[in-house]
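Sample 3 of the quickstart, ligand adenosine monophosphate:
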Amino acid sequence: MPSNVDKATSSVQPAVAKVKRIIPPQLVRGMRDILPPEWRWWNFIWQKVEAQARAYSFERLETPVVEKTNLFTRAIGATTDIVEKEMFSFVDQSDDHLSLRPEYTAGLARAYIEHGMLSLPQPVKLYALGPTFRHERPQSGRLRQFWQFDFEIMGEAAAVADSQLIILAAGLFESLQLPVNVQINSVGCPTCRAVYRQQLQDYYRTKRSVMCEECKKRLQRNPLRLLDCKEESCQELKANAPQMVDYLCEICKAHFVRLLEHLDEVELAYQLNPYLVRGLDYYTRTVFELWGQEGSRSALGGGGRYDNLISDLGGQPTPAVGFAAGLERIVSELKGREIEVPAPPAPDLFLASLGEAPRKKALRLFEELRRQGVRVTESFTKDGLKHQLEIANRLGVKFALVLGQKELMDGTIIVRDMENGIQEIVDLKKVVSEVQKRLAAHQSNITRATN
Ligand code: AMP
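Result:
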């Protein structure tokens, strides 16, 4: 029989065992943190996007990440993969049906209408850069939150706008040192596409028995997407499928020819891809994609013309053309090709301080140096000169300043050349100009040595 002591201990043990283990929060599946070392690639792309926007006179317009769900349903198309399966949609506290944007164009078209941009001189050239969301199956190159940059030319029907956008996009990749393969097609206008759609359905109806399950559904709902199927058996079928170019009406054909002539004029290499249809319903006429390394499974960017989108959303008829690319895929392409990207500028100067009073003074000196444009860093939370100089060494600064009790009392500071260890005592009041002089001399020595 258990004693009272036994009973007491046995009643304690389960309580100990019940201590709750707190599971740390984790990332949402398919989403990623962008950690500090990653930013040099992102900044590199960002700079090139902004440079290209400036060069071609695009202005930035950022729309909210959240829009009414029916904007995307109407714009992208109710039977597209994005709308049917991939939107992050929710009902908010006010019973509004909202979605995280799966792409930029729909939001920018809404903004164009809502802000009366039709009254501005046309075309209106806009660009944007931010996160987009699609609930896709996470895999290499496919995330659920990914960043896009996006360029749109709204209010221009001429093929020259399509050409310029493709030239801009190809030039952007060139400035990123990424060779891309530009693929182009025309999906016609609603009139000629309806004829083609029928031809495509007639062709595929005879092949139903060898089609994948998904394509059987596409046959009724969205036959153009049959050409996009990645299944091997369906790939074989498309080789003999009718091609849109053979069904383009005269106006669409003339537009396509003009576009290609413009690209030839600037000697931009492209490949005609009769199977390129893209996954969004709003495209008319021109569609294009830019592909990276051979064998990659997904495009770096893509776009096309969408002449009916703005009027379909309730705006005045406004022809337009746009292009978007994903930053994560570009970052991995840059890394894959081992492209050197500029590192953030390293500090030139380290400010070491010893003791409470010198630290206080150093805090002020740090601000002064920073205001004068000196790239200075410090380690105010560390004591001990040795430790601080080790940090300075690791950072690869050219000079370190050392301010201790004695220097503070004398109104001086030590300037240490980190390359040869030579130290000099200088007047604390003149230290900023002294440092600037030495850094300038150091820079001109480097320039002379490299020339
Ligand atoms: P799309 O609007 O589908 O043509 O997408 C334009 C670009 O966005 C693509 O070429 C990719 O670079 C990028 N992108 C699209 N979907 C994803 C995704 N799920 N994950 C990462 N990047 C994506």
